[in-house]
User: What shape does this take?
Amino acid sequence: MPRPGPRLRLADVAERAGVSLATASRALAGRDGVSQEVADRIRQISADLGYVANPYARTLAGGTSATVGLVVHQVDDPYFSEIAGGVIQVADEQNLLVQICHSGRDPGHELRQIRHLIAQQVGIIIIAGSGYTDAVFESEARAALAAYIGTGGRVAVIGRHSLGVDAVLPDNEAGGKALGVHLLGLGHRRIAVAAGTAGLTTVADRQAGVLAALAKAGIAAGDVPVVHTDFTRDGGRAAAERILADHPATTAIIALNDAMAIGVLSALRARGIPVPDRMSVVGFDDVSVAADLAPSLTTVRLPMTTMGRTALDLALKPAAARPRRRATGHTLMVRDSTGPAPA
Amino acid sequence: MPRPGPRLRLADVAERAGVSLATASRALAGRDGVSQEVADRIRQISADLGYVANPYARTLAGGTSATVGLVVHQVDDPYFSEIAGGVIQVADEQNLLVQICHSGRDPGHELRQIRHLIAQQVGIIIIAGSGYTDAVFESEARAALAAYIGTGGRVAVIGRHSLGVDAVLPDNEAGGKALGVHLLGLGHRRIAVAAGTAGLTTVADRQAGVLAALAKAGIAAGDVPVVHTDFTRDGGRAAAERILADHPATTAIIALNDAMAIGVLSALRARGIPVPDRMSVVGFDDVSVAADLAPSLTTVRLPMTTMGRTALDLALKPAAARPRRRATGHTLMVRDSTGPAPA
DNA sequence: AGCGCTTGCGAAAGCGCTTACGTAGCCTAG
DNA sequence: CTAGGCTACGTAAGCGCTTTCGCAAGCGCT
Assistant: This one.
C-alpha cells in the first residue's frame, strides 16, 4: 500500500488565510462563529489551492463519515447496477463517497459485509436486493443494524421489507398479480412459474401474487408448476427446460425476474418454440434490455435508478418515526413476448 | 451524518491480551517484533471480540489506505458493471474496499474525480473506459497520476493506452479488423460504421481497425459512412436511422460497441428490416446479453470481468518497470446477426 | 566477566482534522 | 462607568491507530 506524500493540509489553507486551524475548519464546514468576510476569504483560498480535506482525518476527528456503504447481491446484474447508478448519482450531488460490496445472494456473507461496514464506521448503509426468509439472518442483521442506528448510523434497504429499517419497496405481490391477470386475460390457463433462488423474500412475494391472481380465476396453486432454480439467466434456462419436460401443455411461463426471463426465451429459441405464438413469457423488473429483446419482453417495470436515489435520500433525511417505507410504483409493460393462448 | 458511538478499539484488544497498543498493532499487522505465542494470543482475542480496525484511524496514522478508487464512465452500462464485478472480486479476496465513482464519459469530470481520489488518499486508483483524444485532459491527468505514483500511489487503467500508467488493454484495432474481415468474407461491400462518442480513443482505434480491413479489400475510407453519435443504445438507434436514410444501399452495420448494436437492431426491427437477411449487424464487447438477443449478436468478445481482476492485480503487484501492459485477448463471436450479403 | 548483538516489548509522538473551551473586543443596559 | 452578554477567533485536547525510539533481557563470543 502506498504512503502518499506531503499534501495540502488544512493548516496550509489556514496559514495562507492568516487564521487558525479552528477558524479555517469552521469556515469550510459552513459552521458559524466566523465572520462572513473571513469565511469567504478562507473558502476562496481553499478553492484556489484545490484543497480537499483528508476524509480519514475528518472522520476520525469528527466521528462522522461521509461514505455510504452499498451492499448489492451482484453488481454486474443489471437490476443492481441500475440501483447502484441511482445511489451514485445522489452521492455525487451530496459529495458522498460510495463504497460498494457484494453479498453474492448469500445471507451469511451479506451479514458479514454488513457487520464489516458497521465496524468500518461508514456513515450510511444501503442494502439492495431481496431479503432472505432465513430467520437467523433476519434477527442477527436486525440486531446489528439496530445497534448501528442507535449510534447514529443511517440505513435504508431496497426491495426488502425486513430488517426493521427504512425501506424502498416495490409491491412485488401486486406486480406478480398483474402478470397473472395479464396472462389470464389472454386466455392462458396452463401457466408455469420460473422462480428464483429459494429463500429470497422477493421470490416468495412475487410468486404469492401470481398464485393469488390465478387462484381468483379458479386455478389452484397445486395446478401451477413452480420451478425453483436461481435468479439468473442460466437459472431461467434450466427452469424452462424443466417446465417443458414435465409440463408440456404449458402455454405461458412467468419468470420472476428479467434475468430468468432472458434465460427462458433463450431455451425456447433453442427448442424452436415460437414466442408468443406457442408460449408466452413474462419477466419482472424491466431491466434496460428487456425492451430490446426479440420478442421484446412483457414485464413489470420497477424504477431501479429512482429506487437507488430514493433510498439514499431517505437515509440522508432525519428519520422521525423510524421504519419508514417508500412504495415504488410498478407498471405492467405489455410487449411482444405475450399473446393469446394457443387454441 | 452519524456519530458512531463507542466501539471496540485496539486498546480493548491490547488490554484484554495484557499487552501494549504497539504490540497489539504489530501482531495484527503481521509485522515482526512480536513473539509467535503473543501474536497468536492477540489475534485470537481480536477474532473472538470481532475487532475490526477503524480504517480511518489506520489510514491517518499509517498513511496507507486500503481502499481502491474505481472510476467508470457509467456503472449501469454492462461493459462497466462487468469490469466493476471483476475489480470487486479481487478486492474482496484482498480485503480492500472499493470506492466507485462515475466520470460520465466527460474528460473534465473524470479529471476532477481522479484528482478527488488522489486528494482523498485512496491507495489504488483504477480507471476504466476509453481514453479521450483531448490532449489537455491527457496531459493534466498524466501529470496528476505521475505525482500520485511518485508518492506511492498505484494506478492501473483498463481499455486505454494513455496516461503513461499500467494498463489492461484489448487490441481494439485488431478487433475492428476482425469484424471488417468477417463481413468482407460474407460478401459485404457496402458497410457503414455506427461509431460512438467522438473524442474517445476506443472509438478511434476500433474504427481504424475496421477501415484498415476494408481498405485492404479495396474499399476506400471515403466510401465507408461513419456516423458518430454516442456509445449508448440510443446512440445506436440514431446512427442506424441516419445510415438508412443517407446510405440505403448499406448491407452491414458495424456498431463500435454492443450497446450501440442493440440500438441498431432495435431501429432495424422498428423498420421491419430483417437481420441478417437484408442487413448484417455486428457489435463489440460481448456484453452478457449479446448472446441472448434475437438474432444473437455477432461481436468481438472482451473478457471484461477478467480485465477488472487483472487491473487490480497489476496495481497490487510492485511495479518494477513502470508502464506495464497486459494485453487482453479478443475473440470474434460469430452469431446470427451476420449473414451473407444480399444479392 | 564483560562486550556487543539480537529479540520482544512499551512509551510516546504524531497522522490531519473537529470541537470543546477560553479570551479578547465590542455592545447594550443599568 | 461598569456588569453582563455577544461575537469572532485562537488554543489545545483528542479521534484510534502506526511507528520510531528506547530499554531490558537473553544470547554467544572473547
Summary: Chain B has twelve helices and twelve strands. The longest helix of chain B spans residues 78-94.
